[in-house]
Amino acid sequence: MSNSYLETKITINHIALIVIGALLAVGFTAGAFVIQQWLWLIAPPMDVIGIALVIIGGRRRRQTQGSRGMAISVLGGAFIVGSIWAAFMLGNAFPT
Q: Most exposed: 9, 24, 42, 93, by fewest CB within 10 Å?
C-alpha cells in the first residue's frame, strides 16, 4: 500500500467524520425540539468537540508529515460516535 493511498484514505475518513458529526448535531438538536426529548441536547456539544478534534488532529498530522495527530483525530471520532450513545442513554434514563 503506497503512502499517498493511505493519506487519501485518512483524509476521506476525516471528511466523513466531520460530515457525520455535523449531521448528528443538527439531527439531535431538531429531534430534541420535535419530540421534546431535552436530554438529547447533550449530543450537539459532543459532536462539535469531536469535529474540532478531528480537524485539529488532521492539521497536526499534515504539519508533522504523519508522525503526530492521529490520536487526536481518533479521540474526535470517539466523541462523535459517543454522542449517539450519550443522547440515547440519557434519554432513556430520564424519560419525560
A: 93
* End-to-end alpha carbon distance in the chain: 52
Three-state SS at 8: helix
Nearest to 14 by CA among 79, 77, 92, 65: 77
The set of cell numbers assigned to 79 is: 466523541
Q: Is the pTM of this model over 0.70?
A: yes
Give the gyration radius of the chain's Cα atoms: 16
Higher pLDDT, 27 or 95: 27
Residue of 74, 94, 81 lying closest to 14 (CA atoms): 74
Q: For the purposes of burial, counting CB atoms within 10 Å of the CB of 29, is it exposed (0-12), middle (13-18) or buried (19 or more)?
A: middle
Residue identified by cell 487526536 is 72
